[in-house]
Amino acid sequence: MTWLITGGAGYIGAHVVRAMTEAGERAVVYDDLSTGRADRVPDGVPLVVGSTLDGERVARALTDHEVTGVVHLAAKKQVAESLSLPLHYYRENVEGLRVLLDAVTAAGVRSFVFSSSAAVYGMPDVDLVTEETPCVPMSPYGETKLAGEWLVRATGRAAGLSTACLRYFNVAGAARPDLADTGVSNLIPMIFEKLADDLPPHVFGDDYPTPDGTCVRDYIHVVDLAEAHVAAARALRAAPGRDLTLNIGRGEGVSVREVIDRVNTLTGHDRPPVVTPRRPGDPPRVVASADRAATELGWKARHAIDDMITSAWAGRQHPHPPTTARP
């Protein structure tokens, strides 16, 4: 099979491309390079520069490269930004997906893996979030991911498309320094940014109903996440007609204060955090049950939080300048 990987030049996408090619799958990257980097795309993997909103360009990429499956990661993904730019998020994440699915069904593509998010759950009042936990998203970003799942499943049923919706939890780490997360919207890069400026990391609220008063999250190494995509892609190929919705996490919660303590220890810093007011919409605890992914895919996360921090820190120490053309 040949897999078109939208957003394949981004942080997560580049790891998925790497995992797919190392597993012997053929890959083509489709990316508008608005946040991705062309130099993340491996030699020998075709790169098509374009937006998922450009239906003609998507259709040409599918036919020119004889694509038989799609992994759709391209999306806007900052919760805070989505609150101020909801129309932009719905256009990019929902309309872009609709245009892509239109081209996919017209081209006769048979398998579709969708990048969803734990943001679809909102503020679940449970110790472990299962796939049956009610979805009540609290941001336009989360809403677009839930709407995307609905669209993917409905298209799958109508067109005979095998589908998998993967609900990621908090992604961190890197396979190599040059593939590290260069953004600062996630907790670990945010901590690094403060340390680089010789400033204390911030804790947004320490009065939550958790053991140390700070929010608890489930962190998943990006390498494990990428391997979950390979497993999902192969599951769809092996059993046409499947319709999977799966949590991708470790099933272990780590608090914000614990993450900051581990970052300080592992990077040789001693910078206690400062507590600032809560951010609107932050749930106290969101931790996955990943049992269904283990059952359906034979997949289980292998990397612990220390692996995520040390590999991300290596990327921070050896920054790779962004480019928009292959080296």
Task: Give an account of the 3D structure.
There is one protein chain. The chain is built from ten helices and 14 strands. It has 327 residues and is an alpha/beta fold. It has a domain at 2-171 and 219-249: Rossmann fold, CATH 3.40.50. Helix 1 (11-22) links the parallel strand 1 and strand 2. The longest helix has 22 residues, at 86-107. The radius of gyration is 19 Å and the shape is globular. The two termini are 28 Å apart.
Contiguous low-pLDDT stretches (5 residues minimum) are 321-327
- Tell me the helix content: 25-40%
CATH superfamily of the domain at 2-171 and 219-249: NAD(P)-binding Rossmann-like Domain
* Count of helical regions: 10
Strand content is: 15-25%
The shape, in one word, is globular
The secondary structure category is: alpha/beta
What is the distance, rounded to the nearest whole angstrom, between the alpha carbons of the first and last residues? 28 Å
Mean pLDDT: 94
Do you know the CATH architecture of the domain at 2-171 and 219-249?
3-Layer(aba) Sandwich
Main β sheet profile? 7 strands, parallel
Task: Compile the SSE list and pairings.
Layout: E1 2-6, H1 11-22, E2 26-31, E3 47-49, H2 55-64, E4 69-72, H3 79-84, H4 86-107, E5 111-117, H5 140-159, E6 162-168, E7 170-172, H6 187-196, E8 202-204, E9 216-217, E10 219-221, H7 222-238, E11 243-248, E12 254-255, H8 256-267, E13 274-276, E14 285-286, H9 291-297, H10 305-317
Parallel strand pairs: 1-2, 1-4, 2-3, 4-5, 5-6, 6-11, 7-10, 8-13, 9-14
Antiparallel strand pairs: 9-12
